[in-house]
Structure formats: C-alpha cells, structure tokens
Write a structure and sequence with these properties.
The protein has 278 residues and is α+β, with helices and mostly antiparallel strands. It is built from nine helices and eleven strands. A hairpin with a 3-residue loop joins strand 9 and strand 10. The chain starts with 7 loop residues before the first helix and ends with a helix.
Length: 278
C-alpha cells in the first residue's frame, strides 16, 4: 500500500480515500494513474500540465456531468495547485481494442451514438451565427500557422480559406460537445461510458462527428450508419456540407500539431484529410 508520496495524484487520493495502491495500466497516458483502495474500489487520478485544460475539464465534470450520469466517471476531488482531478474509474475495455469489422466495434458505435445524442439533446441551443463565426476564426488561425510553417501551398491555403468562409456564413445549432469523441475515449463493458472531458465546451453540434468521420467512417461507412442510428437522426445535406468544412479544421490542426510535436502519424493524417477536401 502507498500511503504518502511526492506525487500530487497520490497525495490527493490519500487525503480523500486513505491508503491506495497503484494499479499499473499501460493503456493510460503518463499523466493519468489508476488507483485501488484497500477495500477494492478503483479510481483514476489525472494531473494536467495546462491550467486551461484543467479548468475546462473541472468545469465539464461539475456542470455537464449530470447529463452523462451512468456513462461517465464522477468527480471525487481536486487540487487546484497541482491541477489534479480524482475520478471514479468505470469498468470496461477501450472501444478501439475491438477488432475492425467486428460486431463489437459496430455495437460500440451504436451505443456511442445513443449516449452522445442524449447528451446533445440535453444541452442543445437553437441555430445562430456566433458558433460559425468563432469556428471560422479558429480555422483561420490554423491556416495562418500552417502557411507560416510552409506546411501548405497556395492552392491548399485557398481551399482551407474557402471552408473558413463557409463556416463564417453558416447558421448552425450548438450543443455542449466532447470534441474528442472517438473510440479511444469510449469504455465498453456492462455499460457504455465516455471519458476525457478536457476539450469539452459548447460548439457546433455536428462537429462532434468530425473525428469519427475523418478517422473512422470514411473507411467503414457501416460504423457511421450504426452511430447515427443510435444517435436518433441522420445527417441533413446541410450538415454533411458542414462536416466537410469541419474536416478542414481537422486537417489544418493535424498538420500544425504534427509539425510542432514531430508526430509523423498526425502530420500524415492531416495531409490525408486535406487531400479529401473539395
């Protein structure tokens, strides 16, 4: 048992739960640790390097977590100085471990659609232009960074700017969005659950489909069908066109972050998405 440690995650857990033991879990990133109490209860402690991400995830759990009751961890405690959250740990396997083409993979997408649809309906707001304008500004920032780093040529820059113009002139309904909604953040077990709320904020509702569309669905359209069936409604023609412009954000973001972080796979993903845009 570990009672006292210099690790702020262990210190937070000890202050709230008593002595805990680290349960090695190679599926977790280094800043997240799984902990077990003496009576066998499991928790997760997560330390943020960035104050904004910490504040955003804390706000998400405190404000919107109730809409995901039974499908998300619960906030147990926090330490603002070390930017650490202590959360309950939900049983299940990461959905990205399901074999491609398997029934398990398809069912996970159906359940993910159902849970997201319920969450979006609980937090939705009517159409307006503010969201589109903000997204256009965000995309333009990524375009400028990509151009400055010579990651895109003139034709690609103009293409991305066209998508920014589409976003800026579009009315779209909004909801609180996860914004990293993909199988690596889904847990499949006795019940479906979703984790990792550090990106969560109010945004264009359909944008929550973008990573799935450009990282999963185009190669496996039956997963799109399963997801939208669970979600409870198909995409309209307008929403399909918007999703294409959200792909422009996906492409530009991946190119810039891949370059900055020397992540070849992320850079290749950005280049691949950019090549699909029209």
């Amino acid at each position: 048992m570990i009672a006292i440690s210099d690790d702020p995650r262990i210190q937070l857990a000890f202050s709230l739960l008593g002595a805990v033991e680290i349960a090695p879990d190679p599926s977790l990133p280094p800043r997240v640790v799984r902990l077990v109490t003496g009576d066998g209860r499991h928790f997760v402690a997560k330390q943020h390097a960035d104050q904004g991400r910490y504040a955003g995830e804390l706000h998400a759990y405190r404000t919107w977590g109730t809409h995901l009751a039974g499908h998300a961890p619960k906030l147990v405690g926090r330490d603002d100085v070390s930017r650490t959250l202590l959360l309950t740990s939900l049983a299940g396997d990461r959905a990205d471990t399901a074999a491609p083409g398997s029934l398990e993979e398809e069912l996970a997408h159906h359940e993910a659609g159902y849970v997201l649809g319920t969450f979006h309906r609980a937090t939705s707001m009517p159409q307006g232009g503010a969201v589109g304008a903000a997204l256009a500004e965000r995309l333009q920032s990524w375009i400028d960074q990509a151009a400055h780093a010579d990651l895109i040529d003139t034709a690609e820059r103009n293409l991305l700017k066209q998508h920014a113009a589409v976003l800026g002139s579009s009315l779209m309904d909004s909801a609180v969005c996860h914004l990293d909604y993909q199988p690596r953040n889904w847990l499949v077990g006795d019940a479906f659950a979703v984790c990792d709320f550090e990106h969560m904020r109010r945004d264009a509702r359909v944008r929550d489909f973008a990573r799935l569309e450009f990282r999963r669905w185009q190669a496996a359209p039956h997963l799109r069908t399963a997801f939208l069936d669970g979600y409870g409604r198909p995409l309209t023609d307008t929403e399909r066109r918007l999703l294409e412009s959200f792909g422009a954000i996906e492409a530009a973001t991946a190119l810039v972050k891949g370059h900055k972080e020397k992540d070849l796979a992320l850079s290749a993903h950005g280049r691949n998405v950019l090549s699909r845009l029209t």
